[in-house]
Write a structure and sequence with these properties.
The protein is of the alpha/beta class. The chain has 11 helices and 14 strands. The structure holds adenosine monophosphate.
Length: 311
């Protein structure tokens, strides 16, 4: 039993009001693997990189229990490249450049050793590629979690609709939830999206936390109020990695346990934004993660007595 992660492994170049990075390692599946490998191993990584992707980056992840058999290396091609610039609020960004390179003709091949995974985490990629991975699995995973973005709603809506029917947990941000559902109220949006297929919906609201919906139930997790947000790139993927990592570790996919998984994801994301790229995630120790989760507990814990008369 294991976690299968699908997504981009890439080079990014990031500009924020506080600084500018060179070409650094990024990609949705990279962040997911760095985050989830704190909680569960092995992780089966499915992606594609070019000959320019540093082998060392694959090796350090391998040393953390991330299998690379499903990562295709196209020696004579270039890795996916994305660059973005954040606005002053650090919540919104403009994509400056997307070079698909190896992702342009990516045909994922699921190795035999990746079959029978417990959880499938579909990181942000073309819905047709995400669909192709599901169709190659001989047995349906116990849980399929999927992240997507507005770009695919605009360019591949019919594939996205087919895919959404097959997933158990969908993760989107608030503007994507509104776009997907055509509803402004997030509660109405959540109802409409769950009617499209997923039993569970997570709506991420950046520095304002995340909502988890299931039937008529809803849970809210705040984001940790941070003094400095240095680079939000990958925060959503890191959140996803913590979420699925916790579920894989505890083998409990109930709504109650998903609440804890959302806190774990939020704690991991709060670290991700402290430095450029994956730099902060690479430094983390178990005690750091425990401390952050404790900070979340303290942040949300309160007591009020409703037994006595007030007036
Ligand atoms: P996030 O900040 O969580 O939305 O994720 C940012 C990461 O997603 C970056 O490291 C990019 O390399 C990757 N990314 C950006 N656009 C795409 C895309 N169209 N397909 C796959 N990965 C992407």
């Amino acid at each position: 039993m294991s976690l299968l992660v699908v997504g981009s492994m890439a080079f990014d170049a990031i500009e924020t009001p506080f600084g500018k990075s060179d070409k650094i390692i990024g990609g949705a599946a990279t962040y997911i693997a760095w985050s989830a490998s704190n909680f569960t191993r092995p992780i089966k990584q499915l992606s594609v990189v070019g000959g320019d992707f540093p082998r060392e980056e694959l090796k350090i992840l391998e040393a953390r229990g991330v299998a690379m058999e499903g990562v295709q290396v196209k020696e004579n091609e270039k890795s996916f490249f994305w660059s973005g610039r954040y606005h002053m609020d650090m919540n919104t960004r403009d994509t400056l450049e997307t070079q698909l390179n190896v992702l342009g003709n990516f045909r994922p091949v699921v190795p035999d050793s990746y079959q029978d995974c417990e959880i499938l985490m579909l990181g942000n990629l073309a819905p047709s590629i995400q669909l192709s991975v599901i169709s190659q699995l001989k047995n349906k995973p116990k849980l399929i979690v999927m992240d997507t973005m507005n770009f695919w709603m605009e360019t591949a809506m019919s594939d996205l609709e087919k895919l959404i029917k097959k997933v158990d947990v969908l993760m989107v941000n608030d503007s994507e939830a509104r776009q997907l559902s055509g509803q402004y109220s997030l509660v109405s949006a959540a109802k409409a999206i769950m009617e499209m297929g997923p039993q569970y919906l997570i709506i991420k609201k950046g520095e304002h936390g995340a909502l988890l919906f299931n039937d008529d139930k809803v849970f809210f997790a705040p984001a940790l109020p941070l003094e400095v947000v240095f680079d939000p790139t990958g925060a959503g993927d890191t959140f996803a990695g913590g979420f699925v990592g916790h579920l894989a570790r505890t083998k409990d996919h109930s709504f109650e346990n998903m609440k804890s998984a959302i806190i774990v994801g939020s704690a991991m994301a709060s670290y991700c934004v402290e430095k450029f790229g994956t730099a902060r995630l690479k430094e983390l120790k178990r005690t750091d993660i425990d401390n952050r989760i404790q900070q979340f507990k303290d942040l949300t814990k309160f007591d009020i007595n409703l037994d006595t008369d007030w007036v």
